[in-house]
Write a structure and sequence with these properties.
CATH architecture of the largest domain: 3-Layer(aba) Sandwich
Mean pLDDT: 93
Number of domains: 2
Distance between the termini: 26 Å
Oligomer: single chain
Bound molecules: zinc ion
Strand order of the largest sheet: 1-2-6-3-7-18-8-17
Number of strands: 18
Largest sheet: 8 strands, mixed
Low-confidence stretches: 1-24
Amino acid sequence: MLNIRRLVSLPVIHAAGFLLIQQEACSMPPVDDAVLKQAIAWRHTIHQHPELSNREVHTAQLVAAALTEMGYVVHSGIGHTGVVAVLQGGKPGPVVAARADMDALPVTEQNDLPFRSVVKTDYLGQQVGVAHACGHDIHTSVLLGVAALLAKQRPSLAGTVKLIFQGAEEGPPPGERGGAELMLEQGALDNPRPQAIFALHSFPDLQVGEVGYSAGPAFAASDQFSLTIKGRPAHGAYPQLSRDPIVTAAAIVSSWQSIVARNVNPLDEAVLTVGMIRGGTRYNIIPATVELQGTVRTLSGDVQALMERRMRDMTAGITAAYDSTFTFEYQKNNPATINNIALANWAVPHLAEAVGSAHVKELPPTMGAEDFAFFAQVVPGFYFRLGVHKPGTETGGLHTPTFRGDDSAIAIGIQSMSGLLLSYLHTKPTVRQHPG
Ligand SMILES: [Zn+2]
Ligand SMILES: [Zn+2]
């Protein structure tokens, strides 16, 4: 397992080593200058005009227009704003896919980028800033750059490339559907069905020039729960008349933590976070109800089922003990993103060809979530991380106002993704989908 902190704490040695390794180990030609320039220009436009999930109308128009001009067969409006583009090469061969996400977040950008966003919009009744705080502007422009490179090589391409530009990766607004799951339902992986799919994500803990991956589980399943505890209200001075839902909630929150500590195998991963607790109106009134909301993250279906079952059982037992009742809703959002191990084993040497072997880092999985998981459930998938930290600059964390992916990551993104797609068409690996 890689120690990320140690890796980023040696910028000077690393930067010096990078040049050396670039000359020694990269067997791919550098990205075409005109393509790179255009991709960076697209990035600036998209970054400056961010759009929230399921609202990526102008971004999708830009993407569709660019792909049409390159000669792709383009289908728009898949899963609301998604764009699916197909390029059939001049020679027969397999079908391979890559996916980029296009949506931004309700975050007010705070950095010194000359093309930073000043866009504001209404989100759930509030005026908010909108920013590409998760780097999806980079992912979209990298995949457009890849599209341009491949289009230039069309006569010699042995097979078909399918490019998927997806909206609402961050999750659709309440009451709407969207994202990878809806695109799949609307045929994004049909006609033609790819034999493998790739995607990348900006990663601020890696420097520009580096890429990271996990073989097997890469991102967690993300579940969401909502619990309402129903007690009996009373004056704060007469608790004997109440069934205090605040005390019941406190007992439940504490007990739930023991599920991870005492029910889950210590060698398995699980997170249970109560992110919201709401109840009461005044200091001396015991309320009738308390509402809790939160998230559960797991890397395997068995642990996921165990978490839900134990949460329900404990809630039933504790509310009964406190003479109260409850309603509990448990919703599965994204499944875990599992990188196909055979595809990962095939991909790593090809990533090394693209960026230099010393720059390909095996990383532990994270408990964050990614809806690429839905695509990777259908066909073998490989999802890797793209370093976007430029030494000497403040990169900020994903989803924060100061997140700042560097333009120089775009060349590495194009190089690594086009390298994987071209190598796939060239080597035609046989990779079977993992069970379930
Ligand atoms: Zn995100
Ligand atoms: Zn993201």
